[in-house]
Description:
manganese ion binding, 34% helix, Creatine Amidinohydrolase, metal-binding, Creatinase/aminopeptidase-like, globular, binds manganese (II) ion, 13 helices, 6-stranded mixed β-sheet, 3-stranded antiparallel β-sheet, metalloaminopeptidase activity
Amino acid sequence: MDNTIYKNRRNSLKESLPENSVLLIPGADMQYRNADSAYAFRQDSNFYYFSGFCEPTSLIAIVNNKDGISTIIFVPPKDKLREIWDGYRAGPIGAVDDFLFDKAYDNTQIDTVMPDILNGSNQVLYAIGKKSGFDQKVIDWTTQAGSKDRHSKSINIIDASSLLGNARLIKDDHEISLMRKACDISAEAHIEAMKSVKSIDSEQHIESLYCNEFSKRGGRFQAYTPIVAGGENACTLHYVENNQNLKKSDLLLVDAGCEYEMYASDITRTFPVSGKFSDEQLKIYEIVLEAMNAAIDQVKPGNDIMQPQEISERVITEGLIRIGLLEGDPEELHKSGAFKEFYMHKIGHWLGLDVHDAGDYMEGDEYMKFKPGMITTIEPGIYISSSMDVDDKWKGIGVRIEDDILVTKDGNENLTSKVPSDPKEIESLMS
Ligand code: GLY
Ligand code: MN
Ligand code: MN
């Protein structure tokens, strides 16, 4: 097990941590679905990024002083009985030997040791408000550190959310290779679904197909609860019931992506249950696809995150005018936001360890500029629910297309292009 990559990430914090400060990163705790039935443990993404360590209720303290970075980890203690029930624990010795921390303690010692770690520092940084109960813990440790004796320094508490998120914004080669794999697995699952849907009659059956296709390729977990939405269900943006029967005349919108070795993928495809788009479905689909392609073209170094957003709004506005769903001047309609009745969400989000990954969208007062190594989704859509005041022929059509786009030195690479989005290619795959 080579955990040097995580050690290097910790050391790289020298550049961004203030002098004489301590950064705290709490790990995740076990979560329970009901009674004592636990979910499979998922480490907190910040914690994982800086440690590679996957045991619950752990904590990292990274101390930056004039001698450089030193790293401390609190981990579950070795425990013969618990290890029989729950599996191997590295313990403090394993945390130092295998995970390359400078020092390690049992997590039972946090409350006694932490005030001493914080004592004498100028600042304690952590992601404020992100872990239940942790804010009060930091306040308590900081108060105790500051009252060790009358002349103790006062310690400022600073939010580290941006510092931690922005450290994860540009993916290194190791991360990109894992995300390529996650994207490949998800793309292959979407292809299998397109090939099979004609003989499947329910959303739930489709959901199970994705789980199976992900899992047999190594993506045991889904990066998020999938949306498997037949017909008008696609117009409920966060539809996750996935329990209705499919009609042959419906489009099926599936937003599903696996997690592979902790990294997310996030793909949406919309395809006809019958294998053939109707005229109206195709007209809407082609507008979304045009918006998609125009938006992807805008993902390149130097452009900012609002450029794909804006072009997608303009293409959708013009398309809706073309087919008579909006009337008026494109510029005026864009300015007034008329498209929002049909396209009400944003074009995308950062993707990485989390599906809605950490990292800021603004740099000071400006929108974030794309830089090589960033990965964003691009996911325009048009949703026409039956409660809208439009001709009946459009009602119940919901279309979204979503790909995962890596920013490269010269432009971008679509990591999920393996699964077709061109309607002719989809129909031919389904035939
Ligand atoms: N699958 C979640 C999203 O597309 O944002
Ligand atoms: Mn997404
Ligand atoms: Mn999605």
